[in-house]
Write a structure and sequence with these properties.
The chain has about 375 residues and is an alpha/beta fold. It has 15 helices and 7 strands. A 5-stranded parallel sheet has the order 2-3-4-1-5. Strands 6-7 form a two-stranded antiparallel ribbon.
Length: about 375
């Protein structure tokens, strides 16, 4: 369970600050006996409750079963690539809808990986020695070009550009030298869906990433929203019916390079359509309840079906709902999360719309067909 700590890291210094925050996760304030809490004067209670609010605001990052499964796959790829010959290593693409925790998943894995290296090889991280940067993490900017990608990596690694107005080739050469010198082993590229491969700049940027992978002995992990629909694996062309078997511009070969190098894993919203899936969802909720700093809340008391309806199975919406409800439970003196409190919380639009549609369908179920084919209300 990890303290998220900071916003998206853009530099290795920010990444290291993120790791430092992970090393000191949020701690629940020591909970006094209920009678002792009631005996506090107003100033004491305000200070204590503010500490609880800070804790619930930061809260925890849960290690969910889907996260663990994909973490295991990334670990296996790193082991596979460790002694691989020169050339691009097999990589991973994590695809899925928004708000399912893809960025959290890869940052959590990268943090675990680097912290493990720090424990195993502390001498590599000696500040007076060569700068060891085992993890590089960048987010793809909208409308990315090859130069923008190289510049983002250079900014992350705190590289001094050779001159003002340096060309894409100059920046890339500098980046590749630094990646080799700094021993980068894990290269995470978040928000790959912002790379628009339907336009020339996007295709060039995609080729640029493949070129980086050819010359950087690292395992590349991409995350994105609806990556299969974005055309990443087919250079921006429609995946069905738009390509002949061979094209004169080398398109098919280039597409094969991308799809042939990367294994696709899907991270989706939680479902409750099977017993196993329902158990996983209920376990996630109970794990969050066990971390609450509330006097009267009993873990396992929340209605997991209601919470699935409210959030649509989104781990992001669930986190918002539980944390905001905890703040309200402290503020109102309830000291437990109730359905009444949660009903007053407004979640992101997608979750609210999903919840409204579910309630509407339950109030107005679709008609059934009689033997004669006529519609009959249930």
């Amino acid at each position: 369970m990890i303290h998220p700590g900071f916003s998206e890291p853009r530099t290795k210094e920010e990444w290291r600050a993120y790791l430092a925050a992970i090393a000191h996760p949020p701690r629940m304030p020591a909970m006094p006996a209920w009678a002792a809490y009631q005996a506090m004067d107003d100033a004491e209670r305000e200070i204590f409750n503010e500490a609880r609010d800070d804790y619930h605001s930061a809260f925890i990052i849960l290690r969910t079963p889907p996260m663990d499964r994909i973490h295991a796959q990334i670990t296996k790829k790193l082991k596979l690539n460790k002694g691989a010959p020169a050339g691009a290593r097999p990589g991973i693409v994590i695809d899925g809808p928004p708000t399912v925790g893809k960025s959290t998943l890869v940052k959590t894995f990268a943090a675990d990986y680097e912290m493990g290296l720090r424990r195993k090889y502390p001498e590599r991280f000696d500040p007076v020695g060569p700068d060891y940067i085992p993890v590089v993490y960048i987010s793809v900017p909208a409308g990315a070009t090859p130069k923008m990608l190289s510049a983002a990596i250079a900014e992350y690694m705190n590289l001094e550009l050779p001159r003002a107005g340096a060309t894409s080739t100059e920046i890339t050469t500098l980046v590749l030298k630094a990646l080799r010198k700094c021993g980068t082993q894990l290269f995470i590229i978040d928000d790959i869906h912002f790379l628009d491969v339907s336009v020339k700049d996007g295709r060039l940027a995609n080729d640029h990433l493949k070129n980086l992978a050819n010359f950087c002995a690292a395992t590349f992990v991409y995350t994105g929203v609806e990556v299969l629909k974005s055309g990443l694996f087919l250079e921006g062309r429609s995946p069905i019916g738009s390509l002949p078997a061979h094209t004169s511009d080398g398109h098919t070969e280039r597409a094969t390079q991308t799809s042939g190098r990367f294994t696709l894993f899907q991270l989706d919203r939680f479902k409750i359509d099977t017993l196993e899936a329902a158990r996983e969802w209920a376990l996630v909720i109970k794990s969050m309840e066990e971390e609450l700093g509330l006097f009267k809340h009993k873990p396992g008391s929340l209605d997991w079906e209601y919470l699935h309806d409210r959030t649509g199975g989104s781990i992001n919406s669930l986190s918002i709902l539980i944390r905001e409800a905890a703040l309200d439970a402290v503020a109102t003196g309830s000291e437990r999360i109730t359905k009444k409190i949660m009903n007053q919380i407004v979640l992101p639009r997608a979750s609210e719309e999903s919840y409204r549609n579910k309630r509407k369908r339950r109030r107005n179920p679709p008609p059934t067909q009689t033997a004669e084919g006529e519609a009959e209300a249930i």
